[in-house]
Amino acid sequence: MQYVPIKTLCEMTGLHEKTIRRLIRKHGMPIHRLSPRGKILVEMGAFTRYMESTKVSVQQDPLLAEVLKDLRDFMRR
Q1: Which helix or strand (DSSP H or E) is residue 23 part of?
Q2: Which helix (H) or strand (E) holds 66?
Q3: In principle, which of 4, 38, 55, 65 could form an S-S bond with 8, CB 3.0–4.6 Å?
Q4: Rounded to whole angstroms, how far apart are CA atoms 46 and 32?
């Protein structure tokens, strides 16, 4: 199992530290503390599984697909 500090997880995911702490508190993700008041380390496998389980499937309709294509083309300019 790989454990990473919250700060590292923030850098890896782009999530704010408060968001990650809230996920730990509300969803009981496995953590490890180096001492009773020490740095919190998050178990990467559990974090990845949680994030995968919260993905939302979106069906694209033709209009949405066209808008997304136009947006990608615009961003490449």
Answers
A1: helix 17-27
A2: helix 62-76
A3: 4
A4: 12
